[in-house]
């Protein structure tokens, strides 16, 4: 990082997508400023100007230039500040990592949302779907410590922030992740011991209360 | 490419996702074998084994090792065979390209499908949504010849195969792309003059007939 580099995140405390960016910056040892967005009260002009298409967090502003979409931002951080590589060094390893990142992006948050933003049969179906996703991730992890092997890396950074929401999924879906995916469950504990992760992730109980508040607002409880 | 390298695509003629991979290989001048899948009659054992999660084409088999998901495969091809770079060389350019690739992946095919796989008001809404997507792409293109600037590259390879389906969208949605996005329309013509694209893309009339056949099978006509 050049001495004059300015790194700002347009952030939201409970967003697993924002947490990815913050963990990546921690892993690189980069100083940055977090600008918390008021997603319910009104988004900032800077957010709307920086991300006119999706109008959502996170945005990384690197010397005022916006980089968008969390998996893309983590990749950009890795390519821009090359110390402590997050992505695998070989093309095939990168392709495998990007496959799982894409899978996580398509499945984890939306399936999880279908658990906590529903009731009755819809929630039961969503819970079964989520357990299928967990089993696929369990198999991808296999006997490895991290998704990429021995070292904490790209796929771990993309996946672990979702774990702050898992308490809410478990309570509302009435299941335990460790009963269905014990290796994945052990991987969560392993990641949470890491300083970058522990520093960034919100308290799952606080996320659960946020979810309950959201459910009330939406008339689900 | 090493002399002994074997490159096989598990392919389907009408798939814009498969076409991306074929165009990228043409751009790199790489010899490859296409194995056409019978998606309606029964997928091959090789496809099910290579892509157990999604069970879909394209799959790139590079010396029998599977690489999955078309945007990821094009990126892998570019990183593995470095002559004639498809992605921008600077990290910020790559981040911008990946943003638009993600946007295209999320919006173009699914919104297009909502036009041709529906009727009545649902189709009208889908057509309006599709025109919004076109306008965003028109703005991203701006006054440039290609999405990345002067040279045909990553975003162009991801986007142009969808154009083989545009005749079907236009006929069923009753609109003309050039009326809403003239620069994007000129970009399509520019790309179609390129040998790699002309060689790979199917005839839009044949795709339109395929869509009509599909609509009949689904009881939409």
Task: Write up this protein.
- 2 copies of one chain form a homodimer.
- Chain A is α+β, with helices and mostly antiparallel strands.
- Chain A has 2 domains: 74 residues, 3-Layer(aba) Sandwich (Glutaredoxin); 127 residues, Glutathione S-transferase Yfyf (Class Pi), Chain A, domain 2 (Up-down Bundle), CATH 1.20.1050.
- Helix content of chain A is 57%, strand content 8%.
- Chain A is built from 11 helices and 4 strands, in the order E-H-E-H-E-E-H-H-H-H-H-H-H-H-H.
- Chain A has a 4-stranded mixed sheet, with helices on one face.
- Chain A is globular and about 55 Å long.
- Chain A starts with 6 loop residues before the first strand and ends with a helix.
- The relative contact order of chain A is 0.13.
- The model of chain A has no long low-confidence stretch (mean pLDDT 96).
- Chains A and B meet through strand 4, helix 3 and helix 4 of A and strand 4, helix 3 and helix 4 of B.
Topology overview:
The structure is a homodimer of 221-residue chains.
Chain A: E1 7-11, H1 16-28, E2 33-36, H2 45-50, E3 59-62, E4 65-68, H3 70-80, H4 91-116, H5 120-141, H6 154-159, H7 166-173, H8 177-180, H9 182-192, H10 195-200, H11 204-217
Parallel strand pairs in A: 1-2
Antiparallel strand pairs in A: 1-3, 3-4
């Amino acid at each position: 990082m050049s001495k004059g580099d300015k790194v700002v995140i347009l952030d939201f405390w409970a967003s697993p997508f924002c947490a990815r960016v913050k963990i990546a910056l921690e892993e690189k040892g980069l100083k940055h400023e977090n600008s918390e967005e008021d997603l319910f009260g009104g988004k900032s002009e800077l957010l709307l100007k920086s991300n006119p298409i999706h109008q959502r967090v996170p945005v990384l502003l690197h010397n005022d230039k916006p980089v968008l979409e969390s998996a893309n931002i983590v990749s950009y951080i890795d390519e821009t500040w090359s110390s402590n590589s997050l992505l695998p060094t070989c093309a095939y390893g990168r392709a495998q990592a990007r496959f799982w990142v894409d899978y996580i992006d398509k499945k984890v948050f939306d399936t999880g949302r279908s658990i906590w933003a529903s009731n009755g049969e819809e929630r039961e179906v969503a819970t079964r779907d989520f357990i299928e996703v967990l089993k696929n991730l369990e198999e991808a992890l296999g006997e490895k410590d991290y998704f990429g092997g021995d070292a904490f890396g790209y796929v771990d950074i993309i996946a672990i922030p979702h774990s702050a929401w898992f308490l809410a999924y478990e309570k509302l879906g009435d299941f335990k992740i460790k009963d269905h995916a014990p290796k994945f469950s052990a991987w969560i504990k392993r990641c949470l011991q890491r300083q970058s992760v522990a520093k960034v992730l919100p308290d799952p109980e606080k996320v659960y209360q946020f979810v309950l508040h959201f459910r009330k607002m939406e008339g689900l409880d």
